[in-house]
Amino acid sequence: MLNMNQNCDWDTRSGFVAITGRPNVGKSTLLNTILGRKVAIVTPKPQTTRNRIAGVKTLGKVQIVFLDTPGIHQHKHLINKYMVEVALRAAADVDVILFLVDARGITDEDREALKRILAKARLEQLIVAVNKVDLATPEEIESTKTELEETFGESQMVFISALKGNGVEQLMKMLIEAMPPGPFYYPEDSITDQPTSFMIAELIREKVFMLTKEEVPYSVAVVVEEVIKRKEDVWVVTAKIFVSRESQKGILIGKGGSLIKKIGQQAREELEALLGVRLFLDLRVKVKKDWMNRPDTLARMGYDLKQL
């Protein structure tokens, strides 16, 4: 069902795969596992991913470009509306839609996300990855499978653990088979199309998610203002962390600057390992009231609202 190949003169195959689903089903974890390195930030909290993130996997004469997308959810802020639209647009213009669900059970949010995706794409384009099988009971897995079989055929389903890698090899075989003939879109050694400044901002935001609670992570945006390369292996990075209220600024800085120092330290250590450089990180916290609903501010932060 999923083999979309056609006769042509290309001796290579390539295509795009959108990784979709509700928030917190493991989309970014799966992308990182497939690529063998971290290109998308991962936290236990929903709505971590805000942009479409591309990851490139080249295997011999096949190249797959994965698009990690924000979770499809009900939105109450302009930034959330943007996130959902990014996901739906990605699903509308790819060769394969990889729809993730949690093996522990299908939720109404899953059903709504699938409904919105199918309004943009054909059913035969979908592969369903039932994730987190390592956390589910056999009864939960069987119940999830039974419900999915009402819509999808057996050849469209694969059971995986994105975190531990179970079933990912089988998933990759399915995706390789689904790639149409065509040229490579990126050089063979490419991993992602994201600029370094984006990756730096995302790593900082990840640490904010991990080290703060309640509404604070969702009220934070990070903008890298300057990257100065003093030497080939010594970088100086200046970044602003925006929050929507003065009280959140105090929480983020912490007593005597303790929390912002911890955020900076953890981000710096991971970035140095990722980039292979010595990095000096200057973080500044700024209040931008209600930035999540202000088109002008969102545009300056790099969110392309033209697609809304």
Describe the protein's architecture and organization.
The chain has 308 residues and is α/β, with parallel strands linked by helices. Helices cover 34% and strands 22% of the residues. The chain contains nine helices and nine strands. The chain has a six-stranded mixed sheet, with helices on both faces. Strands 7-8-9 form a three-stranded mixed sheet. Helix 6 (196-211) packs across helix 8 (258-275). It is globular, with a radius of gyration of 20 Å. The model is unreliable at 1-7 (pLDDT under 50).
The chain-level mean pLDDT equals 92
Return the structural class: alpha/beta
Number of strands: 9
Largest sheet: 6 strands, mixed
Percent range for β-strand residues? 15-25%
User: Which consecutive residue ranges, at least 5 long each, have pLDDT under 50?
Assistant: 1-7
Please work out how many helical segments DSSP would assign: 9
Short note summarizing the structure:
With 308 residues, the chain is an alpha/beta fold. Helices cover 34% and strands 22% of the residues. It is built from 9 helices and 9 strands.
Question: How are the elements arranged and paired?
Answer:
Blueprint: E1 13-20, H1 27-35, E2 53-59, E3 62-68, H2 78-91, E4 96-102, H3 108-118, E5 126-131, H4 138-148, E6 157-159, H5 168-178, H6 196-211, E7 221-231, E8 234-243, H7 246-253, H8 258-275, E9 278-287, H9 295-300
Parallel strand pairs: 1-3, 1-4, 4-5, 5-6, 8-9
Antiparallel strand pairs: 2-3, 7-8
Helix pairs in contact: 6-8
Task: Provide keyphrases for this structure.
308 residues, disordered N terminus, 9 helices, 6-stranded mixed β-sheet, 3-stranded mixed β-sheet
